[in-house]
């Protein structure tokens, strides 16, 4: 029986460039060692994403006419490098009257929505080529909203991919909340899934346990309802936070001063907690299976931790952060490549 290969992608705004750089290396190695036309979407059985990670997940799971992966990860990298400035642009006047997003959302959603519509069009969630989990949070119902592409086939819970990506990207203080409508007509009021699962790897693990993969993928070599020893999980972050907060300063900032730090801390801390939990789960396995969980989260080096810093110099620094990680971790990344090849059906 082959393993279920799971890819989990963190949120992080423009820092998703780091994720794309690492995935590009993995895809290039698949092309060298397996087949020249290899695309990531054909090698993973299940992909989960929050915010910017959900956008990348949706790109690599777009179908071509044969229901295979349509896009190389290079398409994602081009989208960030070419459209990032457009999506995250804030005019001088907006900076002047709305510093730091204190009075309304920091960035207009119009450019984001236009680019999502241009890229995904009327593609539906159920049309993605593999099971996919995307996170968001319903502010009216006060509960997590998890978009699940394989369940979209079985129920009324189907949506346009562009709307799902807009919902999971609605990070408070950056973009406004959004109301989206399912294909069945049900309305949801949503914000960024990174608020509770910026690292969605544990959500992916829990969801994968319930999926009858042999049936969904129409392949008897894959197990239904896999246990942890049936999984390979690759979890990719958007860079380790390096910003610290002075104890003396934070003692006196008050509620407004805590807005940005609390979001920053919540998102990075929940990512670290998920990594700890999955490490402990995999440590219960035998020695060989213990090595089937990978957490990849490069140092930001000279790159800004801000999710909306689209200066040319920062984009280059994000690219370099990804490249530096690859240079220092080729052995691990090459192990992942070989496992993906071995477990592809």
TrEMBL record:
The keyword Lipid metabolism applies. Keywords: Hydrolase, Lipid degradation, Lipid metabolism. InterPro entries: Acyl_Trfase/lysoPLipase (IPR016035), PNPLA_dom (IPR002641). Pfam families: Patatin. Residues 7-205 form the PNPLA domain. Belongs to the patatin family. This is Patatin-like phospholipase family protein.
């Amino acid at each position: 029986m082959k393993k279920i290969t799971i890819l989990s992608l963190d949120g992080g705004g423009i820092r998703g460039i780091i994720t794309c750089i690492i995935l590009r290396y993995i895809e290039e190695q698949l092309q060298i060692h397996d087949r020249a036309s290899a695309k990531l979407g054909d090698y993973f059985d299940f992909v989960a994403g929050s915010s910017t990670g959900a956008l990348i997940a949706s790109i690599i799971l777009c179908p071509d006419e044969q229901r295979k992966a349509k896009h190389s990860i290079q398409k994602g990298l081009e989208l960030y490098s070419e459209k990032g400035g457009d999506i995250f642009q804030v005019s001088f006047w907006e900076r002047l009257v709305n510093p730091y997003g204190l009075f309304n959302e920091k960035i207009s959603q119009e450019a984001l929505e236009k680019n999502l519509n241009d890229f995904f069009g009327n593609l539906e969630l159920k049309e993605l080529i593999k099971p996919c989990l995307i996170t968001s949070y319903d502010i009216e119902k006060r509960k997590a909203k998890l978009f699940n592409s394989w369940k979209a086939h079985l129920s009324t819970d189907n949506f346009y991919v562009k709307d799902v990506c807009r919902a999971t990207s609605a990070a408070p203080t950056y973009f406004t909340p959004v109301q989206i409508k399912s294909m069945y007509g049900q309305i949801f009021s949503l914000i960024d899934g990174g608020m509770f699962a910026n690292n969605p790897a544990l959500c992916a693990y829990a969801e994968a346990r319930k999926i009858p993969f042999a049936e969904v993928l129409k392949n008897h070599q894959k197990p239904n309802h896999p246990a942890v020893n049936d999984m390979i999980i690759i979890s990719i972050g958007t860079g380790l936070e390096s910003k610290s907060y002075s104890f003396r300063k934070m003692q006196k900032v008050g509620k407004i001063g805590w807005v940005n730090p609390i979001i920053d801390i919540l998102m990075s801390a929940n990512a670290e907690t998920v990594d700890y939990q999955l490490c402990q789960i995999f440590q219960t396995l035998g020695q060989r299976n213990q090595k089937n969980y990978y957490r990849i989260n490069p140092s930001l080096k000279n790159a800004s931790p801000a999710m909306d810093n689209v200066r040319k110099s920062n984009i280059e620094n994000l690219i370099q952060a990804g490249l530096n990680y690859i240079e220092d971790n080729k052995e691990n990344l090459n192990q992942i490549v070989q496992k993906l090849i071995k477990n592809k059906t």
